[in-house]
Write a structure and sequence with these properties.
The chain is mainly alpha-helical and 440 residues long. Helix content is 61%, strand content 3%.
Length: 440
């Protein structure tokens, strides 16, 4: 028997042209949720985004009930997919964690904690409805493009121009006054915290690149330009989680999307490069912050200050996890669980003190707050989605969404979680599941 010819990757015919109500809601979500920032600047952005997400979720709930009623009347109710069952399991584990939390009602809803049981329930609502009745369309791509253009322009004006458009910074302050100069932290765009911004850019940048890839340059150049702007903002804000996410997720995407006949050679080359890089880091102590820390780790010397204090946070949480392994402390209740604050010293003098409210590693955050069963169900959910991505990789739309989800997942290994950015992840994951199910 001769070799079977490999099917070429189809052009973007899988994107549906005609609009439907799910597409309308996704477009509304992208416009309103990304561009709306409240009326109090960065000081009130979390509360404003939370309320906006709750309102948009209420609209989506009405939409989902309508689709469910139509399916029941027509007798075409489909069984749940394995990924949707994993999502329901994650929801049940989260609700059980909230019910058993020592912090009572705070685990269900709290003004300071924005990813309590209520918010996680709405994440699952978003995933289940969009993955079941939605599908990515050309209209969604166009909406994403047209809102990312002003979004990136705003970020560049703030970061490069040191300007304060929309008066997001208080008084006469600007982006350059952050990082402890005149206020703690750093904020940019309509997302705010640069950690969240970095993770969001890790999600959308590879999607723009793959959407433009293979298109004639006369049609693709706006997407290449916008992808370059997103990457430029990621570099300028100097937050590693997003850049590391794009690097690791990019390698994974390259391995998944690579033609079968070249994959083993690609993996071999990547393995050789990784081994050479580790050998170099072990042998040479490079004068760059995180590279120096990797050198020390390879030699068995680990300090709490590594990873901008992340190792200190992770150590504290890992020590406490066995005490509440099954149910955790409650959704987003790390801030109330008595973790010692992170203190940074320079020359023996305290220069910074920060309360610990998040693990800065999403899987660890789930394990600490919601327990081991919740983590296993979440890993099953993401793992099944990525498996669907691998199986449907010849589908251009699935390839685009899977690359974005992969890069975001890698970024969230080092980034705090927030309602400001996580709905974009769940939306992309839901659309990936919907497209993979349609392809199947």
């Amino acid at each position: 028997m001769g070799k079977q010819k490999r099917k070429p990757m189809p052009r973007n015919k899988t994107l549906r042209k005609e609009p439907d109500w799910t597409e309308v809601w996704v477009g509304l979500f992208l416009v309103v949720y990304l561009l709306f920032f409240g009326f109090e600047g960065y000081s009130g952005i979390s509360a404003a985004k939370t309320v906006t997400f709750y309102v948009l979720s209420g609209i989506l709930l009405v939409l989902g009930v309508g689709y469910l009623v139509l399916d029941l009347r027509k007798g075409r109710l489909r069984p749940l997919t394995g990924t949707q069952i994993a999502a329901l399991a994650f929801l049940v584990c989260t609700l059980a964690s909230a019910a058993a939390s020592p912090y009572g009602g705070r685990a269900w809803y709290d003004k300071s904690a924005h990813e309590t049981a209520l918010t996680v329930s709405l994440y699952m609502l978003l995933f289940l409805i969009v993955s079941r009745w939605g599908r990515p369309t050309e209209g969604m791509i166009r909406v994403l493009f047209w809102i990312l253009a002003p979004f990136c322009l705003l970020c560049l004006l703030q970061v490069v121009g040191k300007l304060n458009p929309l008066s997001l910074y208080p008084g006469s302050l600007n982006y350059g006054d952050g990082y402890g100069v005149k206020y703690s932290g750093a904020y940019a765009g309509t997302i705010g915290n640069v950690d969240f911004l970095s993770a969001f850019l890790a999600l959308v940048t590879p999607m723009l690149v793959l959407y433009a890839w293979g298109k004639p340059i006369r049609k693709a150049w706006p997407f290449w330009l916008l992808a370059a702007a997103c990457l430029g903002v990621s570099v300028l804000i100097q937050v590693l989680c997003g850049l590391v996410g794009m690097a690791l997720g990019g390698v994974i995407s390259l391995a998944v999307l690579c033609p079968d006949r070249y994959r083993k050679w690609l993996l071999l080359g990547l393995g050789i490069l990784a081994a050479a890089g580790l050998a170099l880091l072990w042998a040479v102590d490079l004068p760059v912050g995180f590279l120096h820390e990797l050198h020390e780790i390879l030699h068995g010397r680990v300090e709490d200050s590594f990873g901008t204090g992340r190792f200190y946070i992770w150590r504290q949480m890992l020590e406490r996890i066995p005490d509440r392994l099954l149910l955790g402390v409650g959704p987003d209740m790390a801030r109330y669980s008595g973790l010692a604050p992170f203190i940074r010293y320079e020359n023996g003098v305290e220069v910074a003190r920060a309360a610990i409210t998040d693990a800065h590693c999403y899987p660890l955050q789930i394990l600490y707050c919601q327990g081991l069963p919740a983590l296993l169900s979440w890993l099953a959910l993401v793992g099944l989605s990525l498996r669907h991505w691998f199986k449907a990789r010849a589908n251009r739309t699935a390839a685009i969404l899977g690359a974005g989800v992969s890069c975001f997942f890698c970024a969230m290994l080092f980034c705090p979680s927030s309602v400001i950015v996580m709905p974009f992840f769940w939306l992309a994951l839901a659309l990936l599941e919907a497209e993979a199910a349609r392809e199947k």
